[in-house]
Amino acid sequence: MLFPKGILEKLRKDAPKYESKLSKEPVLSLYNEMYQARCIRSKKLEILRHLLQQKEKVQEVIVQLTKCNESLLAECSKRQNPLTVAQADVIGRYTCISSHQLHRMNEPGILSMDIHPSKDVVATGGIDTNAVLFDRPSSQILCTLTGHSKKITTLKFVNVNGDELFITGSADEVAAVAVQESEKCFVSVSKDNTWCLYDILTGTCKSKVSVTSVQDCYRSASFHPHGPLLGTGMATAVVEFWDMRTKSLLANLKGHRGPVTAMSFSGNGYLLATAARDGVRLWDIRRLKYLSIISPYDSCAPINAVEFDSSGSYLGIGGI
Predict the structure, then answer these.
(1) In-domain check, residue 116
(2) Residue 273 lies in a domain
(3) Is residue 28 predicted with pLDDT exceeding 70?
């Protein structure tokens, strides 16, 4: 309705007075234009209300992230390496004790893996588009998860409010998934040049950031353990740091050759390991400085995974 009720009644009452004085077509045309403008205004107001609600939800997530990071930072200052951490000479004597065929033989290959934080269960994502949960003590496959149409490039266990959940990402778009320490949200980075912050319980996207370069798509991601900082690895060999509160780009690291396929922060947050075609680079995050490079494989064997252990004493590296 364009007019208040009282004015509308008066216009109807006085309408006969203007019957011979006004041309109906121009008036009707003007009325239609006013009506369309009112409809557009109403739609825009609804969009604005929705955006404001989304902003409030994002702010709630940012507050949760900040509180979690402050708590983790306080714990880190008191943390000492556990006595159970294996010594280097012990690890040097490790040997393979078993091998298992978990995925389809016609499409062999495992591209991603995660270990349950409290159970002796391993999850693997394969080229065959399946995810497998494997019980190590019994050497039995607990279940095979299907549904993806392309190879599974990333997967993570999460535990929210006692509910054990499992996140998988496939090569149709998603390149990597990073779960925040609070396990209330996660980030997915994609080959469509975007990264998105999701609420784990609802699965809703809270925030989305895009890069402008068509060639500069995302290939890997990792949350810093003690701050609202997200690291992303790019197809153009660049490592970027994002402030999750403002969605602003803080800094970038250059030096790799080829796409940055994996990355991991150390437990104390001082070091970052990144992998690309030229090997694994270690960076000092406090100074944004390159420290050293590790090349366990030849240049023809790409590195697909790097991960610090919980103590920060060791770095696991995986390649093809």
Answers:
(1) no
(2) yes
(3) yes
pLDDT at residue 99 above 80? yes
For residues 22 and 289, which has the higher predicted lDDT (pLDDT)? 289
Q: How many residues does the chain have?
A: 320
The more confidently predicted of residues 98 and 74 is 98
Q: Can you give the pTM of this predicted structure?
A: 0.70
Give 8's pLDDT tier (boundaries 50, 70, 90).
confident
Kindly write down the DSSP assignment for every residue of 152-192, as one continuous string: EEEEEEEEETTEEEEEEEETTTEEEEEE-TTSSEEEEEETT
Residue ranges of E strands in the chain: 110-115, 121-126, 131-135, 140-145, 152-160, 163-170, 174-179, 185-190, 194-199, 205-210, 218-223, 229-234, 239-243, 248-253, 262-265, 271-276, 279-284, 289-294, 303-308, 315-319
Could you give phi then psi for residue 229, rounded to 5 degrees? -120, 130
- Is position 220 within any domain? yes
Q: Are 132 and 112 in contact (CB under 8 A)?
A: no
